[in-house]
Design goal:
By secondary structure, this protein is α+β, with helices and mostly antiparallel strands. The chain folds into two domains: about 70 residues, RNA 2'-phosphotransferase, Tpt1/KptA family, N-terminal domain (Arc Repressor Mutant, subunit A, Orthogonal Bundle), CATH 1.10.10; about 90 residues, ADP-ribosylation fold (Alpha-Beta Barrel), CATH 3.20.170.30. It is built from six helices and eleven strands. Helix 1 packs across helix 3. The protein is elongated, with a radius of gyration of 17 Å.
Length: about 180
């Protein structure tokens, strides 16, 4: 089983639907590695601990993390389930970026960026990452988020273990379109 397929399945289970595999997540989003591997093997997915460690270590977006003792695993961010990741509020850089499909721009300009089914809006510290995220759904737009201004206005920011910046909502006032991505 290739790493990309395993990563996609882990994202489903650890971010959205642990019941798809029959595993339990604790309040912080952790699943027991032993249980996860056992259930994956029961479902016909021959993944062992070494393969799981390889998937986590080589994931380009660092989507997953092991606990300090290696007995638990969780998604770094992106949950649609209520989990408490233990993130501390941080002062963001002056600007952050968000790539999105052009089809969503009308509602974004009216309502801002909303978490929708996730816990937080995901923001990137650099344009390259934001462009890649936006292009996943076709023609995209790159937005600047005036993060320092938002923070100074009382909005809270967090940074996930993989570097993704998180906030509950970005009002239109703090958005600026900088380019359309072909």
């Amino acid at each position: 089983m290739d790493n990309k397929r395993i990563s996609k399945f882990l994202s489903l289970v650890l971010r959205h639907k642990p019941q798809a595999l029959g595993v339990s997540l604790d309040a912080q989003g952790w699943a027991l590695v032993e249980e996860l591997l056992f259930k994956m093997q029961q479902k016909g997915m021959p993944v062992d601990l070494l393969k799981l460690q390889e998937v986590v270590a080589t994931n380009d977006k660092q989507r997953f993390a092991f606990s300090a003792d290696g007995s638990r695993i969780r998604a770094s961010q992106g949950h649609s389930l209520p989990v408490e990741l233990g993130l501390q509020p941080l002062e963001p850089p002056a600007v952050l970026y968000h790539g999105t499909a052009t089809q969503y721009m009308t509602s974004i300009l009216q309502e801002g960026l909303q978490a929708k089914s996730r816990q937080y809006v995901h923001l990137s510290a650099d344009r390259v990452t934001a462009r890649m995220v936006g292009q996943r759904h076709g023609k995209a737009v790159l937005l600047i988020i005036k993060a320092a201004s938002m923070h100074n206005s009382g909005y809270t920011f967090f940074q996930a273990a993989n570097g993704v910046w998180l906030t509950a909502h970005v009002p239109p006032l703090f958005l600026e379109i900088i380019e359309e991505i072909q």
